[in-house]
Amino acid sequence: xxxxxxxxxxxLSVVILIALxxxxxxxxxxxxxxxxxxxxxxxxxxxxxxxxxLLSSLFEPEPHPERLSKYYxxxxxxGIVFTMIWAVFGMFVGVWAAAQLAWxxxxxxxxxxxxxxxxxxxTTGVIFGFGxxxxxxxxxxxxxxxxxxRLADQFSPWFVxxxxxxxxxxxxxxxxxxVTQSKEYAEAEWYADLWLVIVWVTYFVLxxxxxxxxxxxxxxxxxxxxxxxxxxxxxxxxxxxxxxPISLSHAKSYTVWPGVQDAMVQWxxxxxxxxFFLTAGFLAMLYYYLPKRADRPxxxxxxxxxxxxxxxxxxxxxxxxxxxxxxxPHWVQNLGMTFSVMLLVPSWASAGNAxxxxxxxxxxxxxxxxxxxxxxAAIFYGLSTFEGSFLAIRPVNSLSHYTDWTxxxxxxxxxxxxxxxxxxxxxxxxPSLWRRERMYSSMLVEAHFWLALAGTLIYIFAMWNSxxxxxxxWRTYTEQNTLTYSFIDSLVAMYxxxxxxxxxxxxxxxxxxxxxxxxxxxxRGAPVSRAEQDLPVVDGPVSPATPAE
Amino acid sequence: xRELFHRKLERTALGFVFAIIAAASVGGIVEIAPxxxxxxxxxxxxxxxxxxxxxxxxxxxxxxxxxxxCHSQMIRTLRDxxxxxxxxxxxxxxxYDRPMLWGSKRTGPDLARIGGKYSDFWHVAHLTNPxxxxxxxxxxxxxxxxxxxxxxxxxxxxxxxxQSLGVPYTDEMVENAAxxxxxxxxxxxxxxxxxxxxxxxxxxxxxFDGVTTQVTEMDxxxxxxxxxGRLTDAAYQGTAAEELPLDASN
Amino acid sequence: MDVEEVDPVSGRxxxxxxxxxxxxxxxxxxxxxxxxxxxxxxxxxxxxxxxPTWPLGTTYTKGVLGTDQRQRIEEDLAQSxxxxxxxxxxxxxxxxDEIMADESLMEFVRASGxxxxxxxxxxxxxxxxxxxxxYPDLTDDDWxxxxxxxxxxxxxxxxxNAAHDETRVAEMPAFxxxxxxxxxxxxxxxxxxxxxxxPATSTPQNATEIQAxxxxxxxxxxxxxxxxxxxxxDMGAPNLADNYWVYGGDMQTLITTIHGGRRGHMxxxxxxxxxxxxxxxxxxxxxxxxxxx
Lengths: 549, 250, 293
Ligand code: HEM
Ligand code: HEM
Ligand SMILES: [Ca+2]
Ligand SMILES: [Ca+2]
Ligand SMILES: [Cu+2]
Description:
Chain A is an all-alpha fold. Chain A has helices spanning 7-30, 35-56, 74-102, 115-147, 155-177, 190-212, 221-241, 259-294, 301-314, 330-357, 362-367, 369-391, 394-400, 404-433, 442-475, 487-525, and strands spanning 243-245, 253-255.
């Protein structure tokens, strides 16, 4: 892979890595009495290893110029490996966290394994580790194919990929050490946040430069969503994470937003992390891999426009539905609620667009587990957005908020939608990327599908039950108009569901492990395909097609 | 017409970028900016007091251990919330909270008004092993809190950072941060009086974990738990909630 | 259109573009979606008119209904109090004996008391009131401060060693630590106390030790616990002869108690709970003990 880099790119990489090594040493020295120092060592080790690897083949011959007429797929392959590593790690931690709620002694009374610390390790591991790598890898794939252009350069994709994974690693190890800002889905501390800004800006620039090289006059829908994902996540991340560290040698910082304003900023961020990370990004995936696999045209271009702009505009208003009945002023809650209801239209429009695209390919859905993954994903996308809009209605939220119902909703979204669409996309992408005829074992794909579906259903039914029971127990009144149950009564009622959820999660995890094995074996040697699946890169400037109308 | 426009938009990556930024900016601006300009957003109360250095350290431990993952600190304007946990939370009560810890999940009960509800002794036993006092509990045990000595040296930096964000800590408070933290957990020493002088008579000075030889993380966390809901009495005034104002001297 | 192309399955035209093999149909937005769009927007519009919603610089639109969540909750709470008032008024005004004699009121006490106890007291005394390490059993009918709902209500109101001005104070001095007794004396008196509830442990071999312990007891402890070790409910000094223990009656715990003293903390509920709630709880706790017997 290093052989593909030009001498200039190798030198640039060396410079950047040396800079990182120095930063690592500086952090380790300045923070020697603080967890910051440990993160310095992490940075040092990661960049050191890469540097050694690079230096060992620094003087390999220049790559053949012919490479420029091919897609640049090496970073995508590495990205897929990262995706699956994080999937297994993150879901394992999820199962562990679930088990701790049923059997609390499973943390072995150790600080770094206690529930409050592994929970963010789980959410970050799956959302940013698994989801983020999948988005980066597929976006590199999709933008090249739909633009018929090679990535704009060879350095930035690696910088984005490794830089991003360094962020995830620092974030997750930080939570285990107790380094956290406590802002959900943005828990990483100031230095990791800053680093992510640099990585993200590079990502954006790379993406735009590649799009600018496109040979198709129009930008395909999938790229609209990837762009929205990259841009809006940058906005959200920067605003929510503005904080001042207590000193440059400490990991600890204080956010600039106080109290009620912090609550609003956090959930403006938190909800839209869902919207632009877990929804827009994965819709991009859906818009490419689903029609590709089904070999059907998108049902309606006009519906695509309606849902894209609806989602981009409406989503940003609804964060306050996480704060119903709180000390946030009532007017903001009402805005959040009404926009959440209107948001259902574009949400369902995109789910419907996906499902109707399958018209004419239903027999494939029946026979092909890969396409079935994507079909089920679209169903769960529709279901969880409906559920979301429903939960955003204040009286409904008065029951669901703070209970497992929220967690059930979350996992209908993340297991049923995010993880399923990712697996479907990967099973489509992997054989074509490694030039295989098919996945190593289609039986294992089938097994993975059923484990994932069963796991999801068990998980969400358990949480719907527990959440609704819990919510009802908290508000049940006796005939004499006094509360019926104490809090502890509701806790005792939760145990059977916590056990069931652990089991469902375990099935899902086993499925992910099987999937990783299958992907690994495919890469290592499924039957080679000679057929060219993608249209080739178009060399040199092609005059943009004349306007359509 | 719209379609024609969109077809054009689709052909320019930068145009698309600006369109996305424009569409995505409106919501946040309309909902966030007015929270700084509408005065009634945060109530004006005269008796709001500051976290002492020890309480602030405890708050940071609460964050570090992820207690917010299971506990909310937000009593909603709902009848059952108020009747179970006390008067609904006001915005002013988290005015100095960076970050806010309102929470999003109640695996355990709300803690917004836990201050003064139980004894220090109970909290220590509970945090050391919840199942010893509440057999039904699934809360993790935190035995290391009583073992870890609290890092007093850095507290000045914490107060200074807060001060620069507009929290009204005085320079004197910043200077005495470590001493005040020590004093609050050591009632029989000369340092104790400085704490009440600077932070008010209602500050709870106590041995917290029952051990006077060193200030531990347990001391800090219990001090924080005992002040929750007691920074101001505002929530108890002019409400139909049945409770009277809390006397904050425990 | 670049290319006029028709999808054979749906019979629809495509938009004429293609991205690595992916095409799009030119299907118009289905009417259902548009209707749905209108309906949700009308709903939102209606809500904006009725309720507080839009910010206007330093204020916001208050909505035609002129209500907000704080007003709502105050109304709800007032309503909830009225709905209970039939019961609460009776609890408030009637005497303990009257209430205990009235089965329907006691039903209220049991229902409401169970939740109040669960959310406030169970943390220390256990969900069933039987207590555990360091927290007294409330069902054993052995009282530190005297049984009966009235006494209990007073304990709840002022607490024990609590922040309340009138708090009950109960301190078992630290005889060993504060060097009022030496190590042998502590051991002897513990042995004596132990023998009160475990007669089998007194053997001819340790008779002299127990006798020595008894002497220490009479001179040092009897002032509070009484000569017969029956305790004093005026001082909250427990009965040491009945085999109901707060902290424990084994030798090890006895020595710890006598050496280091005890100062149990029972919070005051005066300000956290209303008078009616305290009365209800007192009756509930009293009832627990009665039921057990
Ligand atoms: C193996 C499957 C999984 C299991 C067993 C699992 C388990 C859990 C558990 C126990 C929690 C904490 C809930 C609580 O506090 O009560 C949680 C939270 C969460 N998980 Fe998972 N999880 C799994 C997969 C995933 C995946 C694949 C994603 C995302 C792609 C994900 C995203 C989240 C999020 C966002 C939360 C936070 C929810 C909230 O704060 O309301 N999980 N999960
Ligand atoms: C129309 C779309 C959606 C709406 C209106 C919506 C609305 C909501 C609401 C009302 C809550 C509960 C807030 C609370 O009571 O605390 C929530 C929580 C959540 N939703 Fe959704 N949802 C939508 C789609 C999704 C999707 C597709 C996913 C995942 C892929 C998702 C992930 C989450 C997560 C992670 C949380 C938990 C946040 C937290 O408390 O930590 N949502 N959503
Ligand atoms: Ca952060
Ligand atoms: Ca949450
Ligand atoms: Cu949301």
